[in-house]
Amino acid sequence: MLAPEPFFEPRGTPFSEYHRIKALIELGHHVDLVTYPIGRDVELPNLRIFRTLKPPFVSKVPIGPSFTKIVLDSLMLLTIVRRVIADRYDAIHSHEEMGLVGVWLAKWLRIPHLYDMHSSLPQQLSNFKYSRSAALRRAFDWVEDQMVHKSDVVITICQELQDTVTGMGVGDRALLIENVMGGDVDERPSRSADAIRSTWGIAPEAPLALYTGTFEAYQGVDMLIDAAALIAERRPDARILVVGGEPAQVAAARAHAAAAGAAAVMIFTGQQPAREIPGFVQAADLLVSPRIRGTNTPLKIYSYLRSGKPIVATNLLTHTQVLTPDIAKLVDPQPQPFAAAILELMDRPDERARLSAAARAVAEEKYSRESYLRRTAEAYRRLAGPPAAPASSAKEIAAR
């Protein structure tokens, strides 16, 4: 498995890779993971992690395209060559831009290749405002075309990506597997919901909305701050708890909140261990996802659905591929409607309960772990050859 990310770090693609590896191991596979020299080792049976050389002065990997990733991807090639010389493999499983290396490597080794498509590479240039170069856009288009057309199986993580692959004419080899495990980890949180409220000075009766995630521009944290300023005028007793962000990003967000008049109701915790996030979720009265652009479904949405807490999200494709008005409050990506939706749910415990129950029912029906395992097994059946008869349960799949 080729994973051009800091593994493991508690953010989108590394979470997806972690759960993919766990599923493959449960299904009886052994995984050798080649990844960056940055990240926390995880202990899983039948998983070996091989890290690249660490270049000097590199301690973090920014989200999205960057010069740092170009350097680290180049170093990954050396580790990949060493692995294929040392061992014989049955398949190559590639994530993100390493799909290009994966298809060439699989052809050289004459083994099948699976491309795990977490996003559209050309779209990343827009989401992260990395470059407006037409030549670079064409290069990314060519890379994506190679990865999709020359892979034996393509896993997509949301309907938009599935539609993209289908539009490229290879929908027959694509399989949609949503990241239903989201940001879940095996470790239990060390702090209860009451302890979290106490730690951050939040009164037990205070209405509390929670945001968890990165502070990249597309996540809409600035829009959330402007919405919080409106909430402060109506409900000065309310609190907006924001978990995540690099120190410099948190400092900038605090300054924005102070300038907007939202400082009194906003609490910024900075990054917290992944194991603690369920505790924050249970401490909240409602959960928010203020994304303002993009098409991929945020991983956290699936765990939010299972949480028993209502969701306020922007009415954009990034959310509406999974969320509907029956299970979440969906509003335009502007401060005024976002603040109004939060205030409405803070004032209406009956509506919070209705949305939470509906969301949990949908999660159990459509986004279960058993479904995730079953579809992962199907992807590898396709990789190995003609599909076999479907197993009747995840336990039977694992036994095979």
Write the layout of secondary structure elements.
Elements (H helix, E strand, L loop, with lengths): L1 E2 L8 H15 L4 E5 L11 E5 L15 H20 L5 E4 L2 H12 L3 E5 L3 H7 L6 H16 L3 E4 L2 H9 L6 E3 L16 H7 L8 E5 L8 H14 L4 E5 L3 H14 L5 E5 L6 H7 L2 E4 L10 H7 L4 E4 L2 H4 L8 E3 L3 H13 L1 H18 L2 H16 L9 H6 L1
Parallel strand pairs: 1-2, 2-3, 4-5, 5-6, 6-7, 8-9, 8-11, 9-10, 11-12, 12-13
Helix pairs in contact: 3-5, 7-10, 8-9, 8-13
Brief sketch in words of this structure:
This protein has helices spanning 12-26, 67-86, 98-109, 121-127, 134-149, 159-167, 193-199, 221-234, 247-260, 277-283, 300-306, 317-320, 335-347, 349-366, 369-384, 394-399; strands spanning 2-3, 31-35, 47-51, 92-95, 113-117, 153-156, 174-176, 208-212, 239-243, 266-270, 286-289, 311-314, 329-331. It has 400 residues and is an alpha/beta fold. It has a 6-stranded parallel beta sheet, with helices on both faces.
Which terms would index this structure?
six-stranded parallel sheet, four-stranded parallel sheet, 2 domains, Rossmann fold, alpha/beta, single chain, 13 strands, 46% helix, 400 residues
Give your account of this protein's structure.
- The chain has 400 residues and is an alpha/beta fold.
- It folds into 2 domains: 2-180 and 368-399, Glycogen Phosphorylase B (Rossmann fold), CATH 3.40.50.2000; 193-366, Rossmann fold, CATH 3.40.50.
- Helix content is 46%, strand content 14%.
- The longest helix has 20 residues, at 67-86.
- The protein is globular.
- The two termini are 21 Å apart.
